[in-house]
Write a structure and sequence with these properties.
Elements: E1 2-7, E2 22-40, E3 46-68, H1 72-78, E4 82-86, E5 92-94, E6 106-110, E7 124-125, H2 126-140, H3 142-150, E8 152-153, E9 159-161, H4 176-187, E10 193-195
Parallel strand pairs: 2-8, 7-9, 9-10
Antiparallel strand pairs: 1-3, 2-3, 2-5, 4-6
Helix pairs in contact: 2-3, 3-4
Length: 197
């Protein structure tokens, strides 16, 4: 048995997936990405992460992930602040051939008790954002990063500069050229940074 789900944030970065997982790029219609899930992270501090909300006329790049169904418990533990939304396959189209996803494909959306914009006490982790954008870059190049920035709401939420001492448990090291490109593109969003010190 295999399960299929849509990744739109850190799940796009294949380095964060289970070894048996396989990702295929594509687009999902009818949803918008938001910096609108907050809570306490693994290290006990407030953090803000990505979620999605229904929105007519929108399209998000992301990946269809297939992995053995026995990995569901580990996936649910990773996405514990999210509810599972089933039956999204018809809204997904693969980049390769525009075929839809399987009918039982699902995604994760914030649980109501965690649904709120981030703030100074619940910032975006720069190490988390780096991981997400590196995943988009791996599939779509710089155009993938630009798409992510343009199709994600909530850039008023501050970013904690934890790149040198990552708080995010699945942090990755960026190539210097990619790090510079990410920082340049984020400057266009007029983001606000918080010191990690």
């Amino acid at each position: 048995m295999t399960m299929s789900y849509f990744g739109y944030g850190s799940l796009v970065n294949v380095r964060t997936l289970a070894p048996a997982a396989r990702a295929q790029p594509g687009c999902l219609s009818g949803w918008v990405r938001e910096w609108r899930i907050w809570g306490t992270g693994e290290l006990g501090r407030g953090v803000c992460a990505l979620t999605v909300a229904p929105a007519a006329g929108t399209t998000l790049r992301g990946v269809r992930i297939d992995e053995p169904a026995q990995g569901l418990d580990a996936l649910l533990a990773r996405e514990r602040k999210y509810d599972r939304i089933d039956g999204i396959g018809a809204a997904f189209r693969h980049d390769a051939d525009a075929a839809p996803g399987p009918q039982d494909m699902f995604l994760f959306r914030s649980r109501p008790e965690h649904y709120g914009w981030g703030d100074d006490d619940h910032p975006i982790l720069q190490s988390y954002l780096d991981c997400v954008l590196a995943g988009f870059h791996a599939f779509w190049g710089e155009a993938g990063i630009v798409h992510f920035l343009q199709t994600t709401d909530g850039w008023h939420v501050p970013i904690l500069k934890d790149r040198d001492a990552p708080v995010y448990p699945r942090a990755i090291a960026l190539d210097p050229a990619l790090r510079e490109a990410i920082d340049d593109l984020l400057s266009d969003q007029r983001v606000r940074y918080l010191s990690a010190g």
